[in-house]
Fold:
Amino acid sequence: MNINKFINMQIKQINLAGSRIATHELEIHLEGKTDDIFIISEQNESYLPILSVQGVNIISCGRSAIVTKQPIIKLWNANMKETTVGMIKTTTSELVIISIYLPPSLTKPEYEKEVEKLGQLLVRHKSKYVVLGGDVNSTHIAWSFKLADQSIRWILLLERARW
Structure:
């Protein structure tokens, strides 16, 4: 696999917080900018389709999305309703992009189940280059998660995906 095509890509993670104004600001930013990929979380599904920028590809699932000027293939992801998975292909390489949104309203068991599904998704694509971004609402006392518990879980998840 040749990673050279992807090295110079500009990738940004943006949380739109369900805002029409933030979505419009994204549209303004896309016009004339060279950023290749925007990993979007907490988007309102009814706002992204109104983007009127020429040459922009949008794939979304729930409140996550990927916006890119690159040709992108949406990958099937039946298990995670708030996670968008896409792939950019060249003749020699594949880049998998994952945009995830885990709302703070999830219970701890629901959250842990989603993290496990994400781990399975990463393992499934471990032979490819992967970019993961999003809003996982983790490690904050506001939603009663223990800091050490969740931090360790994420480290183990990412370590397991490497193998």
Notes: The beta strands are 11-15, 37-41, 57-61, 64-68, 73-74, 83-89, 94-101, 129-135. DSSP finds four helices and eight strands in the chain. The chain has a mean pLDDT of 75.
